[in-house]
Design goal:
The protein is an alpha+beta fold. The protein has two domains: 151 residues, no CATH class; 59 residues. It has seven helices and eight strands, in the order E-H-E-E-H-E-E-H-E-E-H-E-H-H-H. An eight-stranded antiparallel β-sheet has the order 4-5-3-2-6-7-1-8. The longest helix has 25 residues.
Length: 220
């Protein structure tokens, strides 16, 4: 997957952060699986649409969901990654982002969690887009709960930096020990190792500068 293939919504400079819980419809693979195991916490680490209503998703769970995933008609194939982590191929119509999210043109942040049929999304975009999404949920009569909404000011990272940041986080680049090397991450993103190194350095600088005062306040 190259960075050029990653689509992001273009927001205005003033970014609104909306955290919203939405009940996934019957037939949606992750909604159904989580409803069948209400005690489970399903974490969607990464998703990728493949066209024609299909897609893939990397997930982890607080419990083993092998049987539920393998038996759901919305899942074509399940690959076990160990430690209750799976990669699933989603069948056409098996469930991706729901219609109001697609039509509003917003992209929830990854990772996100699903419990007992309810997905917890954080979405950053303009206030107008947030209102548009909520209105569409009402019109479609899809149950939802707005958890919080706030203005976050100017965007911290560019769209491309955000794509690199999400991939690095999801793949465990900043974990100790690392779950992915710089070379492997560069190959995943379709960029050279030197280019990715520069991008990561810029991202780290922005994040460190943004939280430097908080680190000082909360450190001896």
């Amino acid at each position: 997957m190259s960075l050029a293939t990653i689509e992001h919504i273009h927001c205005d400079n003033m970014v609104n952060q909306l955290r919203i819980e939405v009940r996934l419809p019957e037939g949606h693979w992750s909604g159904d699986v989580s409803r069948s195991r209400p005690e489970a916490i399903i974490r969607i680490e990464e998703t990728m649409p493949l066209g024609r209503g299909r897609g893939t998703a990397k997930i982890s769970s607080s419990t083993d969901l092998s049987q539920e995933l393998n038996s759901h008609s919305g899942v074509d194939e399940v690959r076990h990654l160990g430690n209750n982590r799976f990669e699933v191929d989603i069948a056409p119509g098996g469930g991706g982002y729901i219609k109001p999210v697609r039509e509003a043109g917003v992209i929830p942040q990854s990772p996100f969690e699903i419990r007992d049929g309810w997905v917890d999304w954080t979405i950053e975009c303009s206030a107008d887009k947030s209102r548009e999404l909520v209105q569409m949920l009402r019109e479609e009569e899809i149950p939802y709960r707005v958890v919080s909404t706030r203005s976050t000011g100017s965007r911290m990272l560019t769209s491309r930096q955000r794509a690199v940041f999400d991939s690095a986080m999801n793949e465990g680049y900043w974990e100790s020990p690392r779950r992915i090397t710089l070379s492997a991450l560069a190959e995943l993103l379709g960029v050279s190792k030197s280019t990715l190194s520069v991008q990561l350095h810029k991202i780290e600088g922005v994040v460190l500068n943004s939280f430097a005062d908080e680190v000082r306040r909360n450190s001896p």
